[in-house]
Design brief:
This protein is mainly α and about 90 residues long. It has one domain. The chain has four helices and no strands. It is elongated, with a radius of gyration of 19 Å.
């Protein structure tokens, strides 16, 4: 039996698990990948730094940019399948 078996999955998808994992990844990124100021910085660490310094406008801008990039990637990934479905006999 897996997490996705049964009718409970329809009502409680594993989104909380994904959120918990993303928090763990952020912690690892903050400690290791984003620890060299001026040399390495991920988008998540840039957003965190902007919020910590009180620059909410920059933080919001970065969130909107990364959200738009993610949406574009997901749309581009699904586009060929949707186009193929249109021409399916």
């Amino acid at each position: 039996m897996t997490l996705t078996d049964g009718p409970a999955f329809r009502f409680w998808p594993p989104r909380p698990l994904a959120f918990a994992r993303s928090l763990g990844e952020f912690g690892a990124t903050l400690m290791f990948a984003g620890s060299f100021p001026g040399r390495t910085q991920t988008m998540a660490v840039a957003i965190y730094d902007a919020l910590e310094s009180g620059n909410t406008t920059l933080a919001l801008t970065l969130v909107l940019v990364i959200s738009a990039i993610a949406l574009a990637i997901l749309t581009a990934r699904d586009a060929p399948r949707k186009i193929a479905d249109l021409y399916k006999p």
